[in-house]
Amino acid sequence: GIRGSSLIVNLPGKPSSIAECLTSVLPAIPYCVDLIGGGRLEVGGGFAAFRPKGA
Q1: pLDDT, tens digit, for every residue of 12-53?
Q2: Residue 15 · residue 40 · CB < 8 Å
Q3: Phi/psi at 3 (nearest 5 deg)?
């Protein structure tokens, strides 16, 4: 959903379900952010995403 200029992504509570949902949702997020007029954030190679064990 969208509230103001924020993109809201609701996720399920189970880590394995989160991983399954994000696999489908993440590719669309840059396009959604562009649609609501959001900026871009570039990160270097030293950035690592946090993923809990089992996700």
Answers
A1: 999 999 989 888 888 888 888 888 888 776 666 676 655 556
A2: no
A3: -135, 115
